[in-house]
Amino acid sequence: MSLAPVVRDDFSAPFFEASAEGRLLLRFSPSSGAWSEPSAMVCSVSQAADLEWREASGRGHLVSWTIKPGRPRDDQPAQDTVIGIVETDEGPWLTLLLPDADVAALAVGAAVEVRFVRPEGSEHLPVGRLGG
Predict the structure, then answer these.
(1) How many structural domains compose the chain?
(2) Which terminus has fewer CB within 10 Å in the chain: N or C?
(3) Is residue 85 part of a domain?
(4) pTM over 0.85
(5) Per-residue pLDDT at 2 exceeds 70
(6) What is the rounded CA–CA span in Å between residue 24 and residue 42?
(7) Which residues lie below 8 Å from residue 122, measured CB to CB, with a gap of 6+?
(8) Where residue 17 sits, what CATH number does that domain have?
(9) Domain residues for 83?
(10) Residue 57 domain flag
């Protein structure tokens, strides 16, 4: 699994600080009571601009996935990358790598738990684990 390094900015700093602690933050609108994805600038339901960071459960279920074929490198066999779309228990959908996924276990509705990895030179990033 190879993830490109990600660097925080002022907007994303709370997200990455929580990620380093193993906590998933999503955006929440107090006026609408709706959750939005971490990159949202306004509520995805009401368009309200009152979003705040709130801790999420870190659980959800698999909606869909794709498998990106790997390439052999340095006499190592090719490793495919599984990328899943996960609907969190709070509602927003996240696109997550599923680095240890058993391809035979991929199924719509499969439980997923968010975990965090830290690629070299990067912030901690969320990934998914089946069976969470």
Answers:
(1) 1
(2) N
(3) yes
(4) yes
(5) no
(6) 19
(7) 3, 4, 5, 6, 7
(8) 2.40.50
(9) 13-130
(10) yes
